[in-house]
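User: Can you model how pyridoxal-5'-phosphate sits in this protein?
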Amino acid sequence: MIPAAETIQKNKDFTITSWIAQGTWNPIPIERAEGIYIYDANGKRYMDWSSQLVNVNIGHSHPHVVKAIQEQAAKLCYVDPSFATEPRGRLGELLAEVTPGGLSKAFFTNGGTDAVENAMKMARLYTGRQKILTRYKSYHGATFASMSAGGDPRRLANEPGVPWIVRLPDPYAYRNPVYRGRTPEEGDQVLAEMIEDIVLMEGPENCAAILLEGYSGSSGIMQPTEVFYTRAREICDKYGMLLIVDEVMSGFGRTGKWFGIDHYPDVKVDMMALAKGITSGYVPLGAVVVSDEVASFFDSHVLHGGLTYSSHALACAAGVATIEVYQNENLVERSRDLGKVLRRGLMDLAEKHPVIGDVRGVGLHHVVELVKNRETREPMSPFNKPFTDPMKQTAKALKDNGLSTMVRWNMVFSTPPLIITEQQLNEGLQILDHVLTDLDQYYEG
Ligand SMILES: Cc1ncc(COP(=O)(O)O)c(C=O)c1O
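Assistant: Here's the modeled complex, given as structure tokens:
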């Protein structure tokens, strides 16, 4: 076997990684993974407290999916998308079953960003209009148009991006001044009025769709109440626009429902973008699932777009097997139930550690926002700036203590695989407790 140091060196010498200056990359060499654990080349075990990038929902190396991939690979890995294959048809059928009523047909992509790109393209073709309205605090992927669609700062280096994105103010009750002195529902109502005003100013005849994460994700899990989604739907209906929900992160049981938007069962959606949990990361795959109306439009209109790997047979087989795991092991219900344990644990930590300013989320999809002072809400590390030393220490201490998770700005995410047990959840919470005890010294209350 190649020594770990050589693996690291080859990765650094011959490959490029995402989102950081390459010279600062100091990767841990991972050798294998099983269940909720990943193991490095020295045998050190890390609890996967984030399901990697919130995608490995069923945990690592699940035998049912591994077997399905092996069997499909031996039979047929790939044919071009003009052919029919068994796994493609079966996955489409399963998606029609688990997504909300009215969504009936899937176009398969390679991942999340191109699912969003294709959803926007389809909305523009369907409506004959150009503009897509999105939230500032959202992330929709890193290809060019999706990067513009996501309003969070990851887009800034690629500005000005595509010209047909219009950004909307955020239902961020913890910090948006609109919510001061108002209940979240009242704040959402005001925000919805502002959004309608924006549609009018942009010209409804130019507005194709509103694109929202089904449940807010990596920008910080800033989720509005039902009022916001209900009003967004009403605005779409009133002005002939489509409602697209991006469930790339919030889909497949993450929030204790099949999809984030399922928390608002009365809100009908026209298109849904999927990826991540669709195969739990075992093989890259994404999808746009569209309503009967949108699907029938494309019966007689050309879909101007395509991908070599659309409907990849191996990826679709992985998708079918992954959905079988969600169903056979009741993982959606498990996420709902264990989500309550996680929330209670995080709320207990918030009582103990003054640095926790806010706890947000539902199911196994939570974040804590760390602050220097609960009154002023000054973040422990400023938004969209390099980590402060205390935050850097926190991120390192979590890893050193065997907890691998997403730490961004002043936020620590808790989004473990849905197969986690209550005992493992408590072990993870204990590590958080230990690390936050050190961070409390930086509280300035
Ligand atoms: C909500 C959302 N949409 C889209 C994407 C992009 O997905 P991908 O990285 O597979 O392109 C992400 C990735 O984190 C996401 O969280």
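A couple of observations from the model: The first helix runs from residue 4 to 14. Residues 38 and 276 are 18 Å apart (CA to CA).
User: Helpful, thanks.
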